[in-house]
Write a structure and sequence with these properties.
alpha/beta; Fumarate Reductase Iron-sulfur Protein, Chain B, domain 2; Rossmann fold; six-stranded parallel β-sheet; four-stranded mixed β-sheet; 10 strands; 54% helix; globular
């Protein structure tokens, strides 16, 4: 078993039985569900909307090279700069190169999972560059020295009391402040940072091929300020985020809003097509888009799992997943958690070390049912498991056990050879530890169904 798998199992055991953690998580997810149900009311035919969205994303992935080149051509014509980054190292080095040339010392960031993927904050800190998260949830976890807990809601694991306590420790604010009061104080504290920053860094919800634009969705206004106030704007985005046309936003934006936060549409929706022109007063002087690969083309080569690249990062599958709701986001120890993370992380980070994530699922299908772009998530988890076996990434002991189990299960005489008591003794010796100390091992019946069937029919 890999070290990452051992850590995962240890954290899972701790979090699954942490009642306070589960109470906070379930409270926040239930608040989301209430809004989500209301948000769905805007769709007259939800299934058709999801089908069309799925087709848009599949179309983009099928001709990914074509649409990325089209985006680069149009964005460059708009006055922007496009940088292709093969991996994390290339992406961070390109950013540091820009900052060195422009003497950047202070930056502001809006929420971006892609920058989390490349550990950008840590890289900037090591190079003496001040980096401030301006999304409230991201700001909270940055202050706490943590990673985001959820794709959409970074501080979902914290109650308002936890956050008030954190602000009290960091800024000596009153511990009894309401969420509204805390929000106003944070706004006041970081407002001038936008004006003082040398550069702003954002992600992108979509990159649009036919107009050479990026589309950014948010609720706090910090994204617009991050893009507009500093002289330099850098966008870090995965290559899979491309969509063919700006008209696709008519569908893709409402779906992302509803499935992400339960809104009909988010408060701020921005389309940026490059730097400001000479006669414009607002906006950055220079805009860079870093197109990140980071093993996405490896995932794209997979016949089935490539569908996972259609993900629009709404986080709905996390909110529906019984495993995520029990063990939480940090347990996965990856940028992308929950069902979608369990599919893509093994390919982005290495199937050998992260294969365990694809086995951390009930296969109940709740994630597939809720996905707005119809990714067959539970099926792709099984595909990952099959690849683990095909590539012989299981241990010799596991392979031997499965072979033995297969032999026994295929022969009725082997199954019925031992009594139920013997089977229970065997199970307690070999499976009790794997079943966990918090659960009782199921009792095997004294007689099998086959034996009982024969006895009943012999009586007749």
């Amino acid at each position: 078993m890999s070290e990452t798998a051992q850590i995962f199992l240890k954290k899972s055991k701790e979090k699954a039985f942490d009642k306070d953690h589960r109470k906070k998580l379930n409270f926040n997810i239930n608040k989301y569900k209430q809004s989500f149900e209301q948000g769905l009311e805007q769709f007259a035919d939800l299934n058709t909307a999801k089908e069309r969205a799925a087709n848009i994303k599949r179309k983009a992935l099928n001709d990914l090279d074509k649409y990325l080149i089209e985006f680069e051509h149009n964005f460059t014509n708009n006055g922007g700069h496009v940088i292709w980054a093969l991996n994390t190292e290339e992406a961070t080095q390109e950013i540091l190169k820009i900052f060195a040339e422009k003497n950047v010392k202070k930056i502001v960031k809006s929420k971006s999972m892609t920058t989390e993927e490349i550990d950008l904050n840590d890289v900037l800190e090591k190079n003496g560059i001040e980096s401030l998260e301006t999304d409230l949830g991201e700001y909270i976890v940055q202050l706490a020295g943590e990673k985001p807990y959820h794709i959409v809601t970074p501080a979902m694991h914290k109650s308002k009391e936890d956050i008030a306590q954190l602000f009290h420790q960091k800024f000596d604010w009153d511990e009894n402040l309401s969420p509204e009061e805390m929000t106003l104080l944070v706004r006041k504290k970081i407002r001038n940072k936008f004006f003082d920053a040398d550069a702003g860094i954002t992600g992108a919800n979509y990159i649009i091929a036919d107009t050479g634009s990026i589309a950014l969705t948010e609720n706090e206004g910090n994204g617009i300020l991050t893009m507009a106030m500093p002289d330099i704007h850098i966008v870090v985005v995965g290559i899979e985020k491309v969509i063919p046309s700006i008209t696709d936003l008519n569908l893709m934006w409402p779906l992302l809003s509803t499935y992400g936060t339960g809104q009909h549409v988010t408060v701020y929706n921005s389309i940026i097509s490059g730097s400001r022109y000479e006669n414009e007063k607002d906006g950055p002087k220079e805009t860079y888009v870093i197109l990140l690969n980071n093993e996405r083309t490896e995932l794209l080569q997979q016949e089935h799992q490539s569908e996972a690249l259609s993900c629009i990062r709404c986080g709905a599958c996390l909110n529906a997943c019984p495993v995520y709701k029990n063990i939480g986001g940090h347990t996965y120890d990856t940028t992308y958690s929950g069902p979608i993370g369990s599919i893509i992380s093994p390919w982005l980070l290495g199937l050998k070390d992260y294969k365990h994530l694809s086995f951390a699922s009930t296969l109940c299908g709740a994630c597939t049912e809720v996905c707005p772009v119809k990714i067959p998530l539970h099926d792709l988890l099984l595909r990952n498991r099959k690849d683990v076996v095909t590539k012989k990434l299981t241990t010799p002991t596991e392979r031997l056990m499965v072979k033995g189990w297969e032999r026994v299960m295929l022969k009725r005489k082997f199954l019925d050879f031992f009594s139920g008591k013997t089977k229970n003794t065997f199970a307690s010796l070999f499976f009790k530890k794997a079943w966990g100390s918090k659960r009782s091992l199921p009792e095997i019946a004294e007689k099998s169904f086959h034996q009982r069937w024969q006895e009943e029919h012999q009586k007749k």
